[in-house]
Amino acid sequence: MQDVDTSLNPAKPAPSLARSRVGGLLIMLVSLVMGYFFIWIPLQHARTGASFSYSMKGVLITPAFFYMGCATLVTDLRDGQAFTIGPDGKKRATRKGWIFIGGFLVVIAVTITAWDLYLKSLGYSAL
Fold it and tell me: Quick one: residue 49, left, alpha or beta (phi over 0 = left, psi -120 to 50 = alpha)?
């Protein structure tokens, strides 16, 4: 049996908390830019009564990105914090992971409802 020299193959270190927070801030900024193009501009066209088109994927992913950025900025979602490897080798969500997933689903549900109600208030049928 051969001895393995672990000094030549160090484990990949987890990203620092500051780096994780900067990543969350960048995700939030990207979501704001996406929101301008996928939500704000189509709503401006809808308010004028003109014909407009929108991407439902863009409408849904914008607040989802913003939520992911906020969650990364506020909490510690680095390696091993939200998901762990179970005894069978599969990824399992921790309590923090399940709270993150639940919040994500709430954000999507609220976005669909708000988008539908707002467009109906303007006289359009959204869904």
Answer: left
In a domain, 2, yes or no: no
- Contact by Cβ (8 Å): 39, 52: no
Q: Which SS3 state, helix, strand or coil, does residue 93 take?
A: strand
Q: Which domain holds residue 44?
A: 17-121
Distance between terminal CA atoms of the chain?
A: 64
CB 66 within 8 Å of CB 34: no
Residue 86 lies in a domain: yes
Global model pTM greater than 0.85: no
Q: What is the pLDDT along the chain (127 residues), one digit of tens a residue?
A: 444 444 444 555 556 778 778 888 999 999 999 999 999 999 999 899 888 889 999 999 999 999 999 988 888 776 667 888 888 888 888 888 899 899 999 999 999 999 999 999 988 886 6
Q: Is residue 10 part of a domain?
A: no
